Amino acid sequence: MDLGIAGRSAIVCGGSAGLGRGAATALAADGVRVLIAARSEDRLRQAAAEIAEQTGGEVRWVAADVTTEAGREAVLAACPAPDILINNAGGPPPGDFRSWGREEWIRAIDANMLSAIFFIRATLDGMIARKFGRIVNITSSMVKAPSAILGLSNGARAGLTGFVGGLSRDVAAHGVTINCVLPGQFDTDRLRSIHQRMAQATGADLATVQDNARRPIPAGRFGEADEFGAMCAFLCSARAGFITGQNILLDGGQFPGLL
User: Fold this and answer.
1) Is the pTM higher than 0.90?
2) Which tens digits make up the pLDDT trace of 51-67?
3) Which phi and psi angles does 87 have, rounded to 5°?
């Protein structure tokens, strides 16, 4: 399928690894000029080169912490008028809410709610003026099925979900869509880190923790980043203009509800 976005420009936050890299790769493969942003210069340089070699696309990079104002300014200086914005920031660590103070909550909200909102604020009016825009927020399946141990992530991402739910309907008539993609358990560094923490906390073998996590997934496996990237690319396409304000769950069937 021709997605109709060749020649468009995109910012992909967290694009050097994991789900962000999956999205960046899928967009580049469809002819989008991609700017990836993350904190590690070495990982960015390597990822940009590998994605460009794999797809034949144009991939640039900016080393920046997108959870800070200075980081966002650096990204927007390199791509001030994106047609596509993929908001993505690493989630806060798991833990017991009794140990989280104001500092931990503010850090989580800055990373997983406000950073996305500020990127949207900086890019939305340009998209409206050009009559085309695609914004995809990578959140989490925990928005639909919260886990106590991931309370910092649940709270911040649910706040972002509520905000964009209203905004998406306000801008839909201008050719701009805003959606959230909710990943379940994907085989990424983030998931491996969570499993390692669980193994350390319980004294269980890591392989046992991973098997226990995999068992409730009807698909029988963890997701792959390229599967996630394909969904992001479709939502960013010219073919997806009638999809907005949605929270699209990719979890291999693990969530048991209908809505």
Assistant:
1) yes
2) 999 999 999 999 999 99
3) -85, 130
